[in-house]
Design brief:
single chain, 16-stranded antiparallel barrel, mainly beta, 6 helices, 468 residues, disordered N terminus
Length: 468
Amino acid sequence: MTNKSFKTGAAALIVSLALGAYARADVVFHPREVGANIDFGEIRSGEEEGSDWSRQTLTRTGVYLTTSATVNEKLDFYMTIGGLFWYPTHPGEASPERLVRFGPGVGQAQGIYTFGNRNDPIGKLQFGLFPVKYNPDATNLGEYLFRSGTYPGYLITGGWSYLNSANYLAQGARFTLPTFGGRVTHDFTLFMERDYEPTSDFSPGYVITAKPTGFLELGAGVVWAHALSLNPDRLSPNKTHQDTITNGYNKNTGKPLHGEPTPADTANGKYNYPIGFYTFRGFKTMARASVDVGSLIGLDGTSLDVGSLIGLQAAAKNELKVYSEIALLGVEDQPFYYEDKTDRMPIMLGVSVPTFGVFDKLSLEGEYHKSKFRNSVGAPFYYSLPIPLDDDGTQDNPYAYADNSTKDDWHWSIYASRSIIPGIRVYAQAASDHQRHPTGPEVKPSIEPPTQKSSDWYYVFRLEFGLY
């Protein structure tokens, strides 16, 4: 038998065994979910890279189809595909560049394998492309551990979906291990970096969630960003000077290099002092807490009779919650840009407010993030450099670019949802957050959110309908 025929025969045997195993498998297909949503809103006030974004219209229409199946009551598969009609948003562009565009996408393509009993699993392995959300109460802000940078520590909210997007679309694997009867859950993650450069690195992480009482939930986590890289040299680029941007710093003074070197800086074509380089690689940490105030004060899920007061009945369970999250985006300090840990610590505080049946959910969230640099992805996006600068020429003098004012330290968000009839829901959101809007014709995200200041804000409404 030739080597080629042997390989052909082996391949045929493997395919036959796989088909036979599939034929013997107990496959249950679940009903498909088909839906659509229409968003409409406006940036009331904002600017980005010196351009006025005020009164820019926000509108998108999305469609999606989700199919799922279970194999042998152990392995679940989910796939969501869809498309989005959207408009590039950027003031000053010619009208042909602002015309409607369409883009297909994959919302999830994942498998979940359950170890042990399906109703009381020993553990679960999730793999593929799937949304990750460790803070169930957050509606817009927070969720820092996976959807924020390390060096630089940029913050991101939203994305292609203006609403209901306080999560991270992960590519990789997650193993969930419940302990102590489900009161303590451990998540071990290995996700690929896929949003901004450097991409394709793997970042291992760990998240713990504890529910010591019925009204209190605690969580914490850590991610080693860019820990596993096929090209580790790009994590700390050896770039001591370019025309407009640098990645080096003087180890003696801790000051970054910028512009062309002077004769006093060099000897025989080399710097006459030791040079260090900034790096993308580092650790991010997160801690959070949620208090179900309704349960704490005895509102255990039965209707609270307030008819004598306001003529309504309020379902109080899980409506009144206070929750918070804090993160440290980069545990290790680096000279000049990353010397103060408090500059790298966003803090979010939220409250879910009872509405006595007016809304299904109403939440208010605020965020404080003290940083002397703007929330920009310019250097990673355009130059693959781990420094918090833009691409507008100001990186020639990083000392002048530092901004110590407090106008962009505070951000906020208001979110509401309501079910009209089965299959139809409406949402509303007003926020000064970190939403970056794709611009045309290159279809690239703006490097800064137009809502940089707390006084900059937008609103958006959504009509969602579908068959579930």
